[in-house]
Specification:
- The chain is α+β, with helices and mostly antiparallel strands.
- Helix content is 25%, strand content 22%.
- Strands 1-2-3-5-4 form a five-stranded antiparallel β-sheet, covered by helices on one side.
- Strand 1 and strand 2 form a beta hairpin.
- The chain is globular.
- The termini are far apart.
- Bound molecules: adenosine monophosphate (AMP).
Length: 112
């Protein structure tokens, strides 16, 4: 099981923000902004570039989850950034697709 499957299964504790049968959202253990939430499909996809046509439904659910979680945490008006890291140069460390939702401070551009 991946780390995030274990979190979804309750085997590893996490601060859960929201969940549905398709995805779970929880606070990142090493937050890079005042709000830093990971949105993760329950059924693992290794990384975004490995998604298959049959994953289209859950990929859409993940993007819809962004707005739902942002509204729940009260950052939809102030703004936020969504990041997906793919592979070594992208900074991926957990091989289970996840969206980073970052908010609560102005975020610089370009990213590092
Ligand atoms: P990435 O580098 O894009 O693969 O992101 C992985 C993220 O998972 C990092 O931001 C980590 O801080 C976060 N992370 C690792 N372990 C945990 C955990 N047990 N609970 C919550 N977040 C975690």
């Amino acid at each position: 099981m991946t780390l995030f499957e274990k979190i979804a299964a309750g085997q590893i504790p996490a601060q859960i923000v929201d969940r549905t049968p398709d995805w779970i959202a929880f606070h990142d253990i090493q937050p890079q902004a005042p709000v830093h939430v990971l949105i993760v499909p329950i059924r693992p996809i290794a990384r975004v570039g490995a998604a298959l046509p049959e994953d289209a439904g859950v990929l859409g659910q993940l993007l819809l989850a962004v707005g739902q979680v942002a509204r729940k945490l009260g950052v939809d008006q102030s703004g936020f950034r969504v990041v997906i890291n793919h592979g070594q140069d992208g900074g991926e460390t957990v091989p289970h697709l996840h969206l980073h939702l970052l908010a609560g401070r102005p975020l610089s551009w370009p990213p590092g």
